[in-house]
Amino acid sequence: MDFNRKAMIFSVSVLGLSLTIFLFAYMVFGDNTDEDLRTLRQVNMLLCYQLIFRHGAKYPDRAYRKDYLHQEIQASDPGSLSLSGSLQMYNLGELLRHRYIKLFPNNGFYSKKFIQVKSSWMDRTIASALSFLAGFMPPLQNTNPLPIPWQPVPVVSIARDRDDLIAQKRACARYDEVYKAQMNSEEIKAIDERSKNLYKILSKNTGENISSIRDVEFLQNTLEAEEAASWEIPDWTEDFYPSKTLPLAERYLRLLTETPFMKRIKGGPLITEIIETMVARKNQLSEKAISIYSGHDVTLVNVMNAMHILNQTSGKPDFAAALAIELHLSLDHKNDMDVKIYYYFNSEDKYPKSIKIPSCDSPCSLDRFRKVMNGLIVNDFEKLCETA
Ligand SMILES: *[C@@H]1O[C@H](CO)[C@@H](O)[C@H](O)[C@H]1NC(C)=O
Ligand SMILES: *[C@@H]1O[C@H](CO)[C@@H](O)[C@H](O)[C@H]1NC(C)=O
User: Fold this and answer.
1) Hey, which of 93, 149, 190, 276 would disulfide with 136, CB 3.0 to 4.6 Å?
2) b/e sequence 231-247, b meaning 16+ C-beta within 10 Å
3) Crossing angle for the helix pair 245-255 and 173-183, nearest 10 degrees?
4) What's the rounded Cα separation, in Å, for the pair 50 and 321?
5) pLDDT (tens digit, 9 = 90+) per residue, 52-78?
6) Which GO molecular function terms does the record list (predicted)?
7) Among the CATH numbers 3.90.1150.10, 3.40.50.1240, 2.60.120.10, 3.40.720.10, which is that of 47-63+72-171+258-385?
8) Which helix (DSSP H) or strand (DSSP E) does residue 383 occupy?
9) pLDDT in tens, 202-243
């Protein structure tokens, strides 16, 4: 009797223990592919990383003429980060905190030596950066001087007319000329011709003059923001949005960096800064481990198209999509380090997509990365922008 009971307790315990081990193993390894496991190991060798994200969901910038959501839009704060957008950015911050926490200083406090956060000039990107940081860098419980789990982390916003990094609106006369020529290229004319009927229907339903892929992109943005606000968009959109409008909006975004010159002007300044940060870190000239850039869908598209990696991600990034560029100690390259790039499709994306860097082996060394990106480096923006 006694023996049987002991045996039973023993078997139950063994069973319980096996189950625990199994569950633990499942938690650690279960959902992960080999690629994820490699990634997890590599995080231990991470030295520095740079993150570029699109702001979270926003309220529409403006209604189209026949928009029956006029009142809702006016009652919101047009163009600003919405409440759900703020939560998206907080969630993204919390998600990435777990991946990058090993880089944080032991005391958990912000220091300008260790992290820099830059934003475009707009309310929604600044608010996105702040929401992100609330999830990304809360203070440690035992050293927090405030009654809420939050610490101030400065966000530098760049004036629009000087911003060649994030919104990339700094004036460039030569770019404007090339842009105009690209909008009138044979390919785009052919697209406009093919889309004539669509433009007509969209114009009729919106009360706007929709006559180019640029106009379609405006409409795509408005409908996207209205949907994200959980407002009901009208039935007529069903046949066109997003099935017909999205490919045209994506084509417009890609056109902004169509030629090598356009890639350099739009994507070059940020890529130049990112490379400089990584080189300084590698050469131990800087302790900067984290750089964050809070931007727009065009920020991501311009940078990714300039690097020729756009076709591995999304042609029109979702709210809170993010691109991470990481610098790792290398097992493969002597006296050099590895550059790795990951893409988060949205704020729920637990397993980011590993991006293949064109013309570079995997792992891609920092030295090789610099060579591949050499044509994008910008040292004298104004000179490049002079017209003939
Ligand atoms: C719509 O805009 C295009 C391009 O700006 C212009 O050529 C066309 O005349 C406009 N159509 C109407 C009906 O206003
Ligand atoms: C993406 O485009 C590059 C050229 O820029 C090409 O070499 C590559 O095969 C494409 N990748 C995919 C996934 O289509």
Assistant:
1) 93
2) bebeeebeebbeebbbb
3) 140
4) 14
5) 999 999 999 999 999 999 999 999 999
6) phosphatase activity
7) 3.40.50.1240
8) helix 381-384
9) 999 999 999 999 999 999 999 999 999 999 999 999 999 999
